[in-house]
Amino acid sequence: MMRSKVLSLVPRATGVCRHMSTATKLTTVAVDDKTGIATLTMNRPPVNGLNLDLLRDLNQSIGEVEGNKSRGLILTSSNPTIFSAGLDILEMYKPDKDRIREFWTALQDVWLALYGSSVPTAAAINGHSPAGGCLLATSCEYRVMLPKFTIGLNETKLGIVAPKWFMSSFLSVLPRREAERALNQGRMFTTEEALSIGLIDEVAISKEQALDKCAQFIGTFAKVNPLARSLTKQQLRAVELQQLENERAQDLERFLFFVNQPSVQKGLGIYLESLKKKAKN
Ligand SMILES: CCCCCCC/C=C/C(=O)SCCNC(=O)CCNC(=O)[C@H](O)C(C)(C)COP(=O)(O)OP(=O)(O)OC[C@H]1O[C@@H](n2cnc3c(N)ncnc32)[C@H](O)[C@@H]1OP(=O)(O)O
C-alpha cells in the first residue's frame, strides 16, 4: 500500500474579506514514500477559482516540492469535475486596488515557479480546465486528462486578452499555427480534440489512472542525471521565464490598465452574471 505523508497542512488565519474563502490550506502536498513523487492537489470549492489565497498556497506548495527533494510533481484537483475554472473573476471585477496588484503578482509567481520548476512536472487533469486552468496544465511537462471535459485558453471569448506568458506555455505544447488559431478563437477543446491536437498527451479513464500515467511519465527520468535534466529543462524554458522576469512590472501595469477599463469591467460583470444564471438553472 502506498504510504503518503501529507505536508502543508498549516492552518491559516481566518480573514473577513470576501475572497478569503477558508481558514485552512487550499492545497495539499502528498509525497509517495516509494516513488518520491509529490502530488499537489488544489482544493478550493466550488471550482478551484484561482484567487489570491489559492495562488499563494500553490506558490508555497510548489516551493515545498522543490525543497523536499521530490522526484517529480503531479498537479491535480480534489474536485471530481473541475481541474480549475481559471482566474477567480471576483478578484478582477470591481477590484480592490492593493489586492489586485498582489493577485497578479502571485499569479506571475506561480507561473514562474511551475513553468520553471526544476523537477519533472505533470498535470492529472481530472476536470474542466479553462483559461488559468489551462495555463497551469500547460506549464507542466506532461498532461493526462479524463474524458468528457474541456481545456483551452478562452480569453478572447470573454473579451479579454491572455498575457504573453500564457501564450508561451500554450506555444510550448502546440504547434504555432494551431496555437494561434485556438488563441484567436478562444477555443475550448474536448478531451478527444485536445489529444488529437497534442494539447494533452494521454487520456485516462479515472483520476487514479491519470495519476499513475503521470507517475509513469516522471519515472521515465529515473535513469537520467537529475542535474543534467533540470539544467536542460531550465535552458529550454529560459527565454520565456527571463522575459517575464524582465517585464514583471510592465506586465502588472498593463494588466491593471486593462482590468480597470470600464468596458472590461462591464464585460466581466455580464460574464459573472451569466455564470450565476447558469448555476441557478
Ligand atoms: C481583465 C484583464 C484580464 C487579463 C487576462 C487574464 C487572463 C484570464 C484568465 C482566466 O482564467 S479568466 C477566467 C476564465 N474562466 C472561465 O471562463 C470559466 C468559467 N466557468 C465555467 O465555465 C464553469 O463554471 C466550469 C468551470 C466549466 C464549471 O461548471 P459547473 O457547471 O460545474 O459550475 P458552475 O455552476 O458554472 O459554477 C459554480 C460556481 O462557481 C462560479 N464560477 C465559475 N467559474 C468562475 C470563475 N472563473 N471565477 C469566479 N467564479 C466562478 C459560478 O459563478 C458559480 O457560482 P455560484 O452561482 O454558485 O455563486
Automatic annotation (TrEMBL):
One of its GO terms (biological process) is fatty acid beta-oxidation. It is found in: Mitochondrion matrix. Transmembrane segments: none annotated. This is Enoyl-CoA delta isomerase 1, mitochondrial. One of its GO terms (cellular component) is mitochondrial matrix. It comes from the Eukaryota. It holds the Pfam family ECH_1. Keywords: Acetylation, Fatty acid metabolism, Isomerase, Lipid metabolism, Mitochondrion, Transit peptide. Homotrimer. It catalyses: (3Z)-octenoyl-CoA = (2E)-octenoyl-CoA; (2E)-tetradecenoyl-CoA = (3Z)-tetradecenoyl-CoA; (3Z)-decenoyl-CoA = (2E)-decenoyl-CoA; (3Z)-dodecenoyl-CoA = (2E)-dodecenoyl-CoA. CDD domains: crotonase-like. GO terms for molecular function: delta(3)-delta(2)-enoyl-CoA isomerase activity. Key enzyme of fatty acid beta-oxidation. Able to isomerize both 3-cis (3Z) and 3-trans (3E) double bonds into the 2-trans (2E) form in a range of enoyl-CoA species, with a preference for (3Z)-enoyl-CoAs over (3E)-enoyl-CoAs. The catalytic efficiency of this enzyme is not affected by the fatty acyl chain length. InterPro entries: ClpP/crotonase-like_dom_sf, Enoyl-CoA_hydra/iso. It comes from Drosophila virilis (Fruit fly). Pathway: Lipid metabolism; fatty acid beta-oxidation.
